[in-house]
Design brief:
- The complex is a heterodimer of chains A (172) and B (291).
- Chain A has 172 residues and is α+β, with helices and mostly antiparallel strands.
- Chain A folds into 2 domains: 3-81, Beta-grasp domain (Ubiquitin-like (UB roll)); 91-165, Orthogonal Bundle (DNA polymerase, domain 1).
- Chain A has helices at residues 28-35, 91-98, 108-121, 127-133, 145-166; strands at 7-13, 16-22, 54-57, 60-63, 76-78.
- The longest helix of chain A has 22 residues, at 145-166.
- The mean pLDDT of chain A is 95.
- Chain B has 3 domains: 7-52, Uridine Diphospho-n-acetylenolpyruvylglucosamine Reductase, domain 2 (2-Layer Sandwich), CATH 3.30.43.10; 63-172, 2-Layer Sandwich (Uridine Diphospho-n-acetylenolpyruvylglucosamine Reductase, domain 3); 178-286, Enolase-like, domain 1 (2-Layer Sandwich).
- In chain B, 31% of the residues lie in helices and 25% in strands.
- In chain B, helix 8 (227-233) packs antiparallel against helix 9 and helix 9 (240-247) packs antiparallel against helix 10.
- Chain B is globular and about 60 Å long.
- Bound molecules: flavin-adenine dinucleotide and FE2/S2 (inorganic) cluster (FES) (2 copies).
- The site of one FE2/S2 (inorganic) cluster (FES) has 11 residues of chain A, from loops.
Chain lengths: 172, 291
């Protein structure tokens, strides 16, 4: 196998299966942005520190600037574009909006994907758990205060929706 | 930033990985979680012509309880260990895992990758030294086992031989009434350790210390066992004064590093304080178990 041999990858992104021949050195974030045109996932530092590039890979928050597309082969990726359902924003997106969890918005997609992973593991997190859970995401604008509030509000909304669904009264 | 081009090989078994490494020679690097190797490749600090991805080899990820030891597969991720239920005495493993980097890095980074990378400020070395891990290696000549105390040779250099793969780390199950702990000083969230101290303590029915091991990372140019501390703990009833006296020897025989994060004197001082606290914490856990 020579150095420029491409590798076939099959990755499910936001529900749709994509197949491409890629260079082994292609990063997952480039695959998402440049190959699939999903530019919601941002590149902040490019050195694995800021978390702007966070996506869910097989349900777990990862920094997509530090994963090769070939490592995601056969996997399932969720990006910020995959959160809204039927034209309705995800509770986390709504809560960031309502609670001013963003200013410039650069960190927001990654912040929301990390928060989603956190809420999947801790549906009712206290402030400390939220702050620790978002340690891998940097924000230069907000001072984090409103991000924590937004995650708390989203958690409450998601728990209420879950309870309603469990009671058989969920709207979908 | 984009890594230089390389040829990609995905190994489906340890044997295949070893064979690929033999075929590809010096130009090939093993890829596990990629959270040390890929950043280095993006900065072109590493430029392997070929990468052997071991990330999907079955059986290398997970924690298995054996009769007298716990076997942790090399591909076990930091997050797996942070969430693991471990036998009494091995608490420091989960504690250490939970203090590494941030949630996203813990999802991808592996214990094996960290031990092979051997960053002198990495967290795992302290815990693996204090819990007397045995590193299981497979190479062209078969399997061999290296004790943690012989693993770290120089900064970013280990006893791993060319062509070898680390497959697991075996931790002896500590005797009854053992406890362990890991403490870390870092400058900010998701940083490496300026000082990391792990301690394991075993006590008998009368509270006398019958065994102790202390691992220190971030302080010297390689992580080390603080044997001078251990020697003063074993055989004594551990009160605060005895522990402080022992911990004062935390950097004996070591030349503490000075860098932008901390000077040598500061590191030496913090090492003594953190070793003391780690021993106290480990002792508390040992004493909380039935005699
Ligand atoms: C932002 C960030 C913050 C971090 N913070 C910390 C921290 O606070 N504390 C800390 O300890 N670490 C930290 N790390 C490092 C992290 O823990 C890495 O995951 C770990 O050092 C490497 O594990 P890996 O599986 O990703 O290895 P890889 O990057 O895949 O490999 C690392 C090296 O080991 C070799 N290798 C890997 N596995 C094997 C094997 N089984 N057999 C033989 N060779 C192998 C590779 O060839 C390579 O040379 C941080 C990393 C990042 C990106
Ligand atoms: S762009 Fe990936 S962590 Fe900053
Ligand atoms: S809103 Fe600007 S970086 Fe977070």
């Amino acid at each position: 196998m020579s150095q420029d041999s491409r590798v076939r990858v099959r990755i499910r992104v936001n529900g749709d299966v994509h197949e491409h021949e890629v260079e082994p050195r292609l990063l997952l974030v480039q695959y998402l942005r440049d190959v699939l045109g999903l530019t919601g996932t941002h590149v902040g530092c490019d050195t694995s520190h800021c978390g702007a590039c966070t996506v869910l890979l097989d349900g777990e928050a990862v920094k997509s600037c530090t994963v090769l597309a070939v490592q995601a082969d056969g996997g399932e990726v969720t990006t910020i574009e995959g959160l809204a359902q039927h034209g309705r924003l995800h509770p986390l997106q709504e809560a960031f909006w309502e609670h001013h969890g963003l200013q410039c918005g650069y960190c927001t997609p990654g912040m929301i994907m990390s928060a989603l992973d956190l809420l999947n593991r801790h549906p009712d997190p206290d402030e400390e758990t939220i702050r620790r859970g978002l340690e891998g995401n940097l924000c230069r604008c907000t001072g984090y205060q409103n991000i924590v509030r937004a995650v708390q509000a989203a958690a409450a909304r998601m728990r209420a929706a879950e309870a309603a669904a469990a009671a058989g009264g969920g709207d979908d | 930033m984009i890594p230089a081009a390389f040829a990609y090989h995905r190994a489906s078994s340890v044997d295949e990985a070893v064979r690929l490494l033999q075929e590809l020679g010096d130009d090939a690097r093993v890829l596990a979680g990629g959270h040390s190797l890929l950043p280095a490749m993006k900065l072109r600090l590493a430029r392997p012509g070929a990468v052997v991805d071991i990330g999907r080899i079955e059986g290398l990820r997970g924690i298995r309880r054996q009769v007298d030891h716990v076997e942790v597969g090399a591909l076990t991720r930091h997050a797996d260990l942070a969430a693991a239920r471990l036998p009494a005495g091995l608490e420091a493993l989960a504690e250490c895992a939970d203090r590494i980097a941030d949630p996203q890095v813990r999802r991808r980074g592996t214990i094996g990758g960290s031990l092979c990378h051997a960053d002198p400020s990495a967290d795992w070395p302290a815990a693996v030294l204090a819990l007397e891990g045995q590193l299981v290696l497979v190479g062209p000549g078969g399997e061999r086992v290296v004790p943690a105390a012989e693993w770290f040779v120089a900064p970013f250099m280990t006893a791993l031989q060319p062509g070898e793969i680390l497959t697991a780390i075996r931790f002896p199950v500590p005797q009854a009434r053992s406890g362990s702990a890991y403490l870390k000083l870092a400058r900010k969230a998701s940083d490496f350790a300026i000082v990391g101290a792990a301690a394991r303590v075993t006590v008998d029915g009368s509270g006398r210390c019958t065994g102790a091991a202390v691992g220190v990372t971030g302080v010297g140019d390689v992580p080390y066992r603080a044997t001078a501390v251990e020697d003063l703990l074993v055989g004594r009833v551990l009160d605060d004064q005895v522990i402080a006296e022992a911990a004062a020897r935390a950097v004996e025989g070591v030349d503490p590093v000075s860098d932008v994060h901390a000077g040598a004197e500061y590191r030496a001082q913090v090492a003594q304080v953190y070793v003391r606290r780690a021993v106290q914490e480990a002792l508390g856990r040992a004493l909380s178990q039935p005699a």
